[in-house]
Structure formats: C-alpha cells, structure tokens
Amino acid sequence: MRRDDPRSNPLRPQTVEAEPQRTSDVGHLVFDFTGLERPDVVDLSLILTARLSASPGESVWVRALPWQTARVLEAMRLDHLFRHYPIGPEELN
Questions:
Q1: What is the residue-level pLDDT of the chain in tens, covering all 93 positions?
Q2: Rg (CA), the chain
Q3: Cβ contacts of residue 34 below 8 Å, gap of 6+?
Q4: CA quadruple 32, 36, 37, 39: dihedral positive or negative?
Q5: What is the Cα 22 distance to its own chain's centre?
Q6: Phi, psi at 60, each rounded to 5°
C-alpha cells in the first residue's frame, strides 16, 4: 500500500458510501401541548419541520393544541398537515 492510502493509517477516518435503507414501518410522532398556554414561533417551527421532514405515510399528531395556535394554523391553511390526537377517553370513540 502507498503511504497516502487511507487504509494504511488506522487512525484516519474512512468514509463508506452506502445507500440509505428504508424500512416499511410507518412512524408516528405526537407533539403534546398539554400545560403549554402559549406556544411560540419555535414551537410552530418544530411541528412544521417535523411534518415536512416526515414521509407522506407517516403521521404527525398534535395533542391539546391551544386554540390560538390552531387558529394560526387554520389561517395559514396548514391545519390539514396535522392529525389531532385524542385528549380523553370520550374522544377515542
């Protein structure tokens, strides 16, 4: 081996190119806003980024979303991106 060959130096990091593997499992992510009275822009940014990063088959849920935040999402026409997680047993049916 040549001296500048990365395999000749065990301390030198090596990169291996590989195809990312996807599984058939569908993921679900739940953002629970219970007890949070007024989410800020960072909170909205977080849930929007999660939705946009998720594959189309994955679900992003919001639980106990304050009504003001729900109105903002409605006004921006983004409310359809999130499923509403049931809060109590009466909502499970």
A1: 555 555 555 444 444 454 444 444 567 888 888 888 777 888 888 889 999 998 888 888 999 888 888 888 899 999 999 888 887 665 554
A2: 22
A3: 63, 64
A4: negative
A5: 16
A6: -115, 120
Backbone angles phi and psi of 31, in degrees to 5:
-100, 115
Q: Is 60 buried (19+), middle (13-18) or exposed (0-12) by CB count in 10 A?
A: buried
**Burial degree of 25 (CB within 10 A; 0-12, 13-18, 19+):** exposed
- Beta pairing partners, 91: none
pTM above 0.90, yes or no: no
Look at residues 56, 57, 61 and name the one whose alpha carbon lies nearest to residue 82: 61
Nearest residue to 30 (alpha-carbon basis) of 65, 60, 51, 56: 60
